[in-house]
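Progress against Task 2.4 (sequence-to-structure conversion) is shown through the following example record, which the project officer requested during the mid-term review.
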Amino acid sequence: MENKEGTRRPAEGNGPRIGDTPSTLNEEQIQFVTKEEHQSIHAGVDWATGKDKASLLVIELENETAVPKVIYKGEEITGKTRVSFEWDTREESPLIGGTRYNIEHLVKCDKSMVKKGYGLSTGKHMFDSDEQP
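Structure tokens generated for the chain above:
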């Protein structure tokens, strides 16, 4: 298939191509996005996958008895067995304040379950014991 300028382009797909001008486009080739889709693009959410591109860790808790929803590096963690998060204001000394999080979850591996986790300790939490209450 040739366009107005006589250059070849693939026959499949009906989206606009480089070199198309308003006179060569028809209504089926124009794609519109909703206000919500536009906002999600600019809010750091990957529109194609729905994953949060900007946040390292997101913890959502619907109420005090709910299982927390955890998203780590854009991936929702399922099979959670433990979620903890601590943050203290950092002051003048680098050892005052800091962040610690620990996420443990079960993953099916072959015919058994494996416990995996993600964690980080900064500031004063680097010297705390690994045991959590």
